[in-house]
Amino acid sequence: MMLEIDIRHRQGGFELQADLRLGQGLTALFGPSGSGKTTLINAVAGLIRPDHGRIAFSDQSWSDAATGTFLPTHRRRIGYVFQEPRLFPHLSVRANLTYGRHFTPKPERRENLDRVSALLGIDTLLDRAPNRLSGGEKQRVAIARALMTSPKLLLMDEPLSALDVGLKAQILPYIERIRDEAGVPILYVSHAVEEVTRLATRVVTLNQGRAAMADAVEDTLQHLPRLGQSRAGSFLRARVTGHDPENGLTLATGPAGSLFLKQADLPVGTSIRVFVPASDLVLATGETGSLSTLNSLSGRVSAIFESGTTVLVRVDCGGEVLDAEITRRSRATLDLEPGKPVSVLFKAVSVEAGGVYRQAVKPGA
Ligand SMILES: Nc1ncnc2c1ncn2[C@@H]1O[C@H](COP(=O)(O)OP(=O)(O)OP(=O)(O)O)[C@@H](O)[C@H]1O
To answer: Reduced to 3 states, what is the DSSP secondary structure of residue 280?
Structure first.
């Protein structure tokens, strides 16, 4: 399948421009507030009609300003999940799930209640009324309802933003399963770096209405501050090589070197991204002696950015970029300049749980 978008659309003083080809897996739409994420997703859904250009899905034209083609939303066979679950309060979970199915032509009904409710872990909730579900359960039912229509494409517009951190963590694995097992491409709007890191097969960034495909998920996430996100840090690519349960550690290797991580439940061979906060990195020059930090990567300073009272030192470790936030005084003490060899040190506990992300679908798949 291929979703082709080549559109321009003006609304008031704002103009959206997008020229994208998107394949299977989960495409994250990522950008600051007002950058055009919802406008883009609405154009794909058929909720707005672009002034110029075309949108096509697997060779079916959904919208073409030149020929006047505009396929209405219900004929695009799209599943939509919003911030709020929007369940029918008077219907049971089961009836909520089967409701949308009737709108799908019989030969195209791929999904069934058993499979979808197992995928979302809601099989024991089918006879409940929505007002007897928790917030996280409601959103899982809403996602299941969207899947029950056997959609060709699933649009998710900040589906987790109304949930607290604990509930988000509960739902993320289900979205991963849909990405990996349901065979439905997903367009996923999010502001949250944790969600994008963990879920995205590819990232489309939006900046003042301009959509751009990122070369790699990691590249986008390296430059979060430019995208209006404040959380400074870096991502390392690695593969799990083993576990050391006695010491509560998981071992991984990537282009930057060997990594010690707090033990994570990930099979050997799993590709992961490890988020390392800039403020947790320690830089050292010369011999470091004995330290309690398990991770020590060798690199070379590639750039230095002054920012207020602190300094962001960018270090190239085997082609991977690590940003370390240190004080001006530390920079002066270490006499750091671009080109200087340094060791980058961080503790295994700096990258526990939320900092390690499984990525089952290869970028570009
Ligand atoms: N109907 C409209 N008429 C005029 N301007 C609009 C209309 N709808 C949205 N806009 C403007 O278009 C721009 C893009 O809005 P959009 O909702 O797509 O952004 P967004 O990236 O989804 O933002 P957020 O993350 O805050 O939801 C904004 O400047 C917004 O004010």
So the answer is: helix
Q: Where in the chain is the domain with CATH 2.40.50.100?
A: 234-358
What CATH number was assigned to the domain covering residues 3-226? 3.40.50.300
Strand 153-157 versus strand 78-81 pairing type: parallel
This prediction's pTM: 0.71
Look up tokens 């959380």; give the residue. 231
At 44-96, the pLDDT tens digits run 999 999 999 999 999 899 999 999 999 999 899 999 998 888 899 999 999 99
- Give me 192's structure tokens: 């949250």
CATH number of 234-358: 2.40.50.100
Kindly give the distance from the C-alpha atom of residue 214 to the centroid of ligand 1, in angstroms, as a whole number.
22
Q: Whose CA is nearest to atom 8 of ligand 1?
A: 11
Tens of pLDDT, residue by residue over 253-270, are 999 999 998 888 888 988
Three-state SS for 36?
Answer: coil
Contacts of 211 (CB under 8 A, 6+ apart): 5, 16, 17, 18, 19, 20, 29, 36, 40, 204, 205
Q: Where in the chain is the domain with CATH 3.40.50.300?
A: 3-226
CB 72 within 8 A of CB 46: yes
Q: Is 35 in the pocket of ligand 1 (CB under 6 A)?
A: yes
CA of 37 to the centre of ligand 1 (A): 8
User: What is the token pair recorded at 277?
Assistant: 């906060």
- Among protein residues, the one whose CA lies closest to atom 24 of ligand 1: 33
User: Which of 165, 174, 178 has its CA nearest to residue 354?
Assistant: 165
Distance 29 CA to ligand 1 centre (A): 14
| DSSP string across 123-167 | GGGTTS-GGGS-HHHHHHHHHHHHHHT--SEEEEESTTTTS-HHH
The C-alpha atoms of residue 181 and residue 174 are separated, in whole angstroms, by 10
Closest residue CA from atom 13 of ligand 1: 34
Residue with CA closest to ligand 1 atom 26: 33
Distance between CA atoms of residues 287 and 289, nearest Å: 6
Residues with Cβ within 8 Å of residue 136, at least 6 apart in sequence: 163, 167, 170, 171
Report whether 79 contacts 151 (CB < 8 A): yes
